[in-house]
Amino acid sequence: MTENIIMLAQGTGETLYMTLASVLFSYLLGLPLGVLVVATGKQGICPHPKLNTALGWAIDIGRSIPFIILIMDLVPVTRAIVGKAIGATASVVPLVIAATPFVARMVETSLEEVDHGVVEAAKTMGATGWEIVTKVLLPESFPSLLRGMSITTITLIGYSAMAGAVGAGGLGDIAIRYGMHRYDAQMMNVTLVLIIIIVAVIQFGFNQTARAIDKRAR
Amino acid sequence: MIEIKNLSKTFEGSSQVNALREINLSVEDGAICGIIGMSGAGKSTLLRCISMLEQPTGGSIEIDGQDIFKLKGAQLLKLKKSLGVVFQGYHLLMQRTIHGNIAFPLELVKTPKAEIDRRVDELLELVGLADKGEDYPSQLSGGQCQRVAIARALASEPKVLLCDEPTSALDPMTTRSILKLLQEINQRLGVTILIITHEIGVVKSICNQVAVIDAGKIAEQGQTAQVFANPQSQVTRQLLEMQF
């Protein structure tokens, strides 16, 4: 019994580690990518139709690749970056590559929600493209960006469980080893409940924060 | 102060729209000039050209003797500083305090913080919102938001204030107080004001000059009292008749 609890605790730790690391890196890559897509769009601060279309294609192709295939395709890359192809840290590589295009689209949506009139007002005041992005678009869309991050995080929890199928560790790994390979339904259900609790806490946390910081709410 | 010569603007799309056709307009230094016309006449397009949100397809606009479309870099920035724009929808930054909103144009020109604070307090006083500095736009009424927008437009000490239907979204009483504020600003600070509107009442109340625009052309222009006493064009007569 105790060994099971230790295993579950470890699994929870690994899931959280994989998820948080992937969210961090996918935002480091995806946020600038999303900003670039918006900036080069038709209504953007420096329209560039060819670059915009190319970026759009890259993002859409990235999003179409089934994750389980991506993990396997990326084994050489993972090995090159991390040194090995299995384990929680190694899984962060395909998780980040899968999540980055997703993040870019979420960021794009959030930025495009910003009232276009406010952007024009900033232009009349002499704001440069960079200033419009950093002083208008990003701060005004911040609550929306947080909500996007909530969706990304929860999606990545699910993806990390899939990565568990190929030896990533975490709760998904436990669920698959016990549930699929050992037919231990009870253990599998326990891990499921743990995952649901983690998702609920994260969702709640992000929603409360987004609402609290949103100055548009009276 | 503002010289508009043969200004034209054509929008290309599924059909060509000649929004402005050879507009000639002269606004005197220190005047309050009303630009009035029906919806779709080209008023907003005219203002968007003067505030450089649109590039005209022909003609020129001179502000204080400078051809604005020939300016670049630092000179262009200096000109944008000398123009304040007030919009119908206020367009305030919702995630910033009132103080932060008024400070925005000053931050763009790297004004030191102490100087920004001093200036913002001064402007809040001017528009009658001295105690609202730490509030957010969502907590203010429409009229108050427009006052903040006016304060923001005045932050960089502009010579010209361009107002695009500043009172169209406000009730009559609030409209009157905003117009009174604009008049005060004109008299105290000597700022030239251009007001785009579709309401005769607005023009009659504070504008000493008026230009009537119809289908992209200036139907007539001159001193308000004269134009309204003796309207030469059909459009002016229609607008006068249709007052509420």
Helix/strand/pairing category of chain A: mainly alpha
Strand content of chain B: 25-35%
Main beta-sheet strand count, sense and barrel state of chain B: 6 strands, mixed
Count of distinct strands of chain B: 10
Q: How confident overall, as mean pLDDT of chain B? A: 91
End-to-end Cα distance of chain A, whole Å, is 51 Å
Radius of gyration of chain B: 18 Å
Please state the average pLDDT score of chain A.
91
Could you state the order of secondary-structure elements of chain A as H and E? HHHHHHHHHH
* Oligomeric grouping of the chains: heterodimer
Give the count of helical stretches of chain A. 10
Helicity range of the residues of chain A? over 70%
- The low-pLDDT segments of chain A are none
Topology:
The complex is a heterodimer of chains A (218) and B (244).
Chain A: H1 2-39, H2 49-64, H3 67-73, H4 75-82, H5 88-112, H6 116-124, H7 129-140, H8 142-163, H9 170-181, H10 185-213
Helix pairs in contact in A: 1-2, 1-5, 1-8, 1-9, 2-5, 4-5, 5-8, 8-9, 8-10, 9-10
Chain B: E1 2-11, E2 17-27, E3 32-36, H1 43-50, E4 58-63, E5 66-67, H2 73-81, E6 83-86, H3 98-108, H4 113-126, H5 142-154, E7 160-164, H6 172-189, E8 192-197, H7 200-206, E9 209-214, E10 217-223, H8 224-229, H9 234-241
Parallel strand pairs in B: 3-8, 3-9, 6-7, 7-8
Antiparallel strand pairs in B: 1-2, 1-4, 4-5, 9-10
Helix pairs in contact in B: 3-4, 3-5, 4-5, 5-6
